[in-house]
User: Which sequence fits this backbone?
């Protein structure tokens, strides 16, 4: 593993890995903006009462204190680092509701912090890339089709292993457990979310012990969670379990629309999967998880859903639907495995060789001419022998070296990968377009 | 002031302001990469002993604690948020020295945190954009000319008021105060740094009381600090003060080389200014400050210098030179004053109008065709009357609306700024290049 991690859970990338991360982020930004999403950044900190509104993650929050707070008697306690981008976004929407245009389409790419135990793909500092569409009072259901399609378009722009989305619907689950006669459907959903961790036997046990489910109810819960289809046939299979409830009907209809809507544009992208629960309690409609082929062990790398009650003030509520791409969770394992790389290690396309110390101003002037034409150029650090200057470029994988005084004092440029050397005019020479800037590459064997 | 600031000192931008910030950052990144600088990101947190190595800012550090640390008996104390990007960079260089290529050119654009009292241009969370060049053991002095030129190139790529850099040299100051006979030259430098705050009279007083300077020594210190020239004539004016010291000679020669080197490329950019001190004790050569015309009250908006001893391990030392652009300090006041803006509020270039609900899949397909050609497009949220759909675009300053069924069912596109409407083919229609993406604009009157 090449990245440094002197403090566990806080990964840092080497410059050539960071180049990959930058290209990843740029590709996401481009796709999100092509789809009309505006970027926002929120401050890293939130009031603790905002962060603790939801129970589950509260214990993982990093709390802040000013070192001088002790000395001057004041206190910043009550502030913590955000652990996701959804809570800050909800707060941002409420604070700026009067100045935003609804439906508001936003993306947000920032680090988040959680004090949980680090493991593969799970860090204490990690980058998320979120998109959400929120509206005022009512949110049209077609956005539940659009959001996963935008995310899929972003994934397709990157050299990633295949991604599969799994969707479910909160009303469908809640209606099913209610229709089944379980007293606390939300508790059932949160239990079902542990299915992958504990396995079906323990889960059945928990359903009986914690929720007072009968053998038959537990059996039907497990049968329900096993339903997973590529198309809308899941609805029939759920109905075959014989449970009836109006909320179940509503959820089945909503999920059918999402699965069919996505399938019409991207066949094979999304499955209806009754085992997907999403423990967080703010989802009210469709929920999504995404798995990366060959990296299923990482769990979901992109999750989200529809929430109708996350943000509300005295006048309005702001329902929304969004997905959150686990940028670090995806990227760091792929970098560790050498699956993605950049076509070179540095932005520099051209090294201008330095014939002697006194030529530096002329060489810098030549470099400026190339930069003015959008070609990344630096001048060699010292007037060493040309062999040494070429090795300087090779070690950094800079593809081209310009010799200002090559043939009879005329400049030439060498592609140091194949040794080809030709006459050089700084006003007209152009590198092949794939060499202009580092490119993302799938380097898996 | 349009940005929200529900917690003082933690500014947040509206989406249209964030668009400006994004374009700012993209312009900086591009210029830095054109000059062969590699991006790195460091984690937001550092061990407290790293953060407290320098005295002055220690009291402003935000200390972290995991909320559950109390419960599980463990502790994360000993971690704090970084207050600049220099300390993390020095640590990064040491940790990764074996895997970096020297001289190492890096840029780094990230938020920093300081618990100091917020005021105009000074925030508790603020973005910095740093460039540095570090080498192993020896750093060639020509980088002290290169770094301010790269920063000036970045400023020139942005719609900013004119910037003026002021440079001094730590050896020059130290040599001057030593040659003058002051016992503690570093203490004198730190006192001189307060000159702007306290004024010359109080400063003279402090020099006498705190450093035991005589009337004549204090007078010469003040005369020294008043020397400020556009060219290398400062050296003669310093010599006229009659102070002699070998380190002063060295500093005069170094600063002369920097001033003349920068002046040869960018006349008028840089001044030699003996009043520039930079309180931080790690600088050992050239120091820089930068002032924005009309915004001198913000203080320096881009500072830096040469440091020979910031990073060292058992085998090597890593001298460097860098400058730090105060991105938030520059941008937030300009946004507040309406001096910079983007040419529109959202990334979207085209709104596809929705004739009726059933047309959504067709309209989305049309939008995908435009997006595939790099044109940011979204579909109207609802099949309202076209007048309403046009107003939807107007409120967001989306320049073009496509009507899929305009004339005899054939699509047309309207520039809603001038009402011009023409036939539309999604495979060939192209917006004017200045409309493709939002552009940065200087909107000052």
Assistant:
């Amino acid at each position: 593993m090449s990245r440094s991690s002197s403090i566990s859970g806080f990964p840092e990338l080497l410059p050539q890995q960071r180049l990959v991360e930058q290209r990843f982020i740029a590709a996401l930004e481009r796709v999100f903006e092509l789809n009309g999403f505006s970027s926002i950044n929120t401050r890293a900190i939130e009031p603790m009462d905002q962060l603790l509104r939801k129970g589950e993650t509260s214990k993982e929050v990093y709390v802040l204190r000013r070192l001088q707070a002790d000395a001057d008697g004041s206190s910043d306690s009550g502030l913590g680092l955000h652990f996701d981008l959804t809570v800050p976004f909800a707060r941002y929407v409420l604070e700026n509701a009067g100045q935003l245009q609804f439906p508001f389409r936003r993306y947000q790419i920032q680090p988040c912090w959680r004090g949980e135990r680090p493991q593969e793909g799970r860090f204490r500092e990690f980058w998320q890339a979120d998109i959400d569409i929120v509206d005022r009072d009512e949110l049209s259901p077609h956005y539940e089709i659009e959001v996963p399609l935008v995310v899929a378009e972003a994934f397709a722009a990157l050299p990633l292993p295949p991604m599969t989305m799994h969707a479910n619907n909160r009303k469908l689950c809640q209606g099913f457990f209610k229709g089944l006669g379980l007293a606390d459907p939300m508790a059932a959903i949160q239990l079902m979310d542990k299915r992958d961790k504990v396995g079906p036997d323990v889960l059945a046990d928990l359903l009986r012990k914690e929720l007072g489910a009968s053998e038959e109810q537990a059996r039907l819960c497990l049968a329900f969670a096993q339903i997973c289809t590529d198309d809308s046939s899941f609805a029939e299979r759920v109905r075959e379990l014989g449970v009836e409830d109006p909320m179940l009907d509503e959820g089945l209809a909503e999920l059918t629309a999402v699965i069919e809507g996505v399938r019409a544009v991207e066949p094979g992208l999304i499955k209806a999967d009754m085992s997907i629960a999403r423990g967080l309690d703010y989802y009210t409609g469709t929920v999504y998880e995404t798995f990366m082929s060959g990296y299923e062990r990482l769990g979901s790398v992109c999750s989200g859903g529809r929430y109708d009650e996350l943000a509300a003030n005295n006048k309005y509520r702001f329902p929304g639907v969004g997905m959150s791409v686990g940028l670090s969770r995806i990227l760091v394992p792929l970098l560790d495995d050498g699956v993605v790389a950049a076509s070179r290690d540095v932005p520099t396309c051209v090294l201008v060789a330095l014939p002697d110390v006194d030529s530096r101003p002329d060489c810098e002037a030549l470099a400026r001419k190339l930069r003015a034409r959008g070609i990344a150029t630096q001048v060699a650090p010292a007037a060493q022998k040309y062999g040494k200057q070429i090795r300087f470029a090779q070690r950094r994988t800079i593809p081209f070296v310009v010799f200002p005084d090559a043939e009879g004092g005329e400049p030439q440029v060498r592609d140091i990968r194949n040794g080809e050397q030709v006459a050089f005019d700084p006003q007209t020479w152009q590198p092949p377009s794939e060499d202009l800037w580092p490119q993302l590459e799938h380097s898996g064997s």
Confidence is low (pLDDT under 50) at residues 1-5 of chain B. Chain B has 15 helices and 19 strands. The first helix of chain B runs from residue 15 to 34. The CA atoms of residues 183 and 211 of chain B lie 7 Å apart.
